[in-house]
Design goal:
Elements lengths: L3 H4 L16 H5 L1 H14 L12 H8 L3 H13 L3 E4 L3 E4 L9 H14 L12 H8 L3 H13 L3 E3 L5 E3 L2
Helix pairs in contact: 3-5, 4-5, 6-8, 7-8
Amino acid sequence: MIPRAVHEEGRGAGPPSTPEGLNLVSRATDYRRIADSLRSWITTGGYPPGSMLPSESRLCREFGVARTTIRRALTLLEGDGLILAIPAKGRVVQGGPTTPLYRYQAIADDLRGQILRDELPAGAALPSEATLRRRYAVSRNTIRQALGILERDGLVAVRQGCRRIVTL
């Protein structure tokens, strides 16, 4: 309950406070303070471009605030274009060289590089899905997603009765 004196203009000795002594004005602007703190860490390289921010729950513990406060702060940073929210992944710092957001994208980039460097020349068969799964230590679905990117980019084609063939 807020003391009546603080509601009456000119009578309060400071910002409204709860019986526990917490400053309500401060609590209402916590998200701005947190956003400023995270913005400072991002701009000074504490969180370099391409890196993931800590989880919401970890930020809650570090700043001692509720999740909604953290979300409001992160929304400010997203609006500024400093971070990007990735569903089921977290928030990544924008800027600098782009980094793959998912493992299948990194695998596709690696295979694309091998094709462009002619380590996998045109007409050569790609390694089997099983070989790629072992090499990258990922699931079959992850490999298929990576290969799908290469197929859409026109670097790889599926031949009936054969493996995937480099078409570049």
